From TrEMBL:
Domain ABC transporter: 14-230
The UniProt record lists the keyword ATP-binding: yes
Protein name: ATP-binding cassette domain-containing protein
Domain of life: Bacteria
One cellular component (GO) term of this entry: plasma membrane
Residues annotated as transmembrane: none
Keywords associated with the record: ATP-binding, Nucleotide-binding
GO MF, one example: ATP hydrolysis activity
Gene3D superfamilies recorded: P-loop containing nucleotide triphosphate hydrolases
Length: 232
C-alpha cells in the first residue's frame, strides 16, 4: 500500500517538509523506513513529542485520494449543524450542485444515512444542532462520523478517542475496523493498541524504535518506551 524509505521531516513555518534542512527548522522524523501493506491494522504509539502525528499526516499526504483522515484538529465548522459537518465528508462523491442543494435543504436519504451513522457512534443529538453546542467527546464523534462518511478503504486516525472513556473508545474502534480494509491510527491507550491491532509501530524522539506484530511484542519494551514520558 505504501513504502517510506529514509524519511526525514522538519517543522518550519516558512519551509516545506520536502525541503532540505534549513536554519531554524526542527527535525521531527529521522531516517524512517517502513512498508505498510493493504489490509493491515496498524497502531502507532510512543511518548509525547515522538513524531506520531507528523508521521500520520505524511502518510495522509501520500494516500489522500484513497484515505479518510480523522485528525486531532477535527476541522469542524462551529456554526454549522451536525448534519452539515458530517455530510462534508461526502462532497467529493457528488456534483457541486447536488452538494449545494443538499446543504441548503437536506435530502431525506442523506438525513437517514447520517442519522443511522450517528446512532452507531452513540451520538444521540438532533442532526440540526450546531457543533459549537456539543461536548468535547461529542465533537470527536462528529469528526469521526465525517471521516467514516467518506467511505474510503483506508482510515487514518490521530488519537480520535482522546476525549472518550476506554469502553466507548473500544466500541468505536470496532466500527472503524469493520468498515475499512486498512487502518493506521495513532493510539494513546497502549492496552487498546495491543489488543485491537495486528501490528504496532512505536516512535521515540522521531525515530522508529519498534515495528512488530503484536504477538511478538515484549511488554517490557513498551514500558521502557514510556518511562521518559512519565518522568517528564
Amino acid at each position: 500500500m505504501i513504502t517510506i524509505d529514509n524519511l526525514n521531516l522538519y517543522h518550519q513555518k516558512t519551509a516545506s517538509n520536502n525541503t532540505a534542512k534549513r536554519k531554524g527548522a526542527t527535525q521531527v522524523i529521522f531516517d524512517l523506513s517502513l512498508t505498510i501493506n493493504k489490509g493491515e491494522k496498524v497502531a502507532i504509539i510512543g511518548p509525547s513529542g515522538a513524531g506520531k502525528s507528523s508521521l500520520l499526516h505524511h502518510l495522509y499526504q501520500r494516500l489522500q485520494t484513497s484515505a479518510a483522515l480523522c485528525s486531532q484538529r477535527q476541522g469542524l465548522v462551529d456554526n454549522l449543524s451536525i448534519f452539515h459537518n458530517i455530510f462534508m465528508g461526502a462532497l467529493a462523491r457528488h456534483h457541486w450542485l447536488f452538494n449545494l442543494i443538499n446543504l441548503m435543504r437536506p435530502f431525506k436519504q442523506d438525513l437517514r444515512n447520517i442519522g443511522l451513522l450517528c446512532q452507531q457512534l452513540e451520538l444521540d443529538e438532533p442532526l440540526a444542532k450546531s457543533v459549537d453546542k456539543l461536548s468535547g467527546g461529542q465533537r470527536q464523534r462528529v469528526a469521526l462520523a465525517r471521516a467514516l462518511y467518506q467511505q474510503q478503504d483506508i482510515f487514518l486516525g490521530d488519537e480520535p478517542f482522546s476525549a472518550l472513556d476506554p469502553l466507548m473508545a473500544s466500541r468505536l474502534l470496532e466500527i472503524i475496523l469493520a468498515r475499512h480494509k486498512s487502518v493506521i491510527m495513532v493510539v494513546h491507550d497502549r492496552a487498546l493498541a495491543m489488543s485491537a491491532f495486528d501490528r504496532v509501530i512505536a516512535l521515540d524522539k522521531g525515530r522508529l524504535v519498534l515495528d512488530s506484530k503484536k504477538q511478538s511484542i515484549n511488554q517490557q519494551q513498551i514500558s521502557k518506551l514510556y518511562q521518559t514520558d512519565a518522568v517528564a
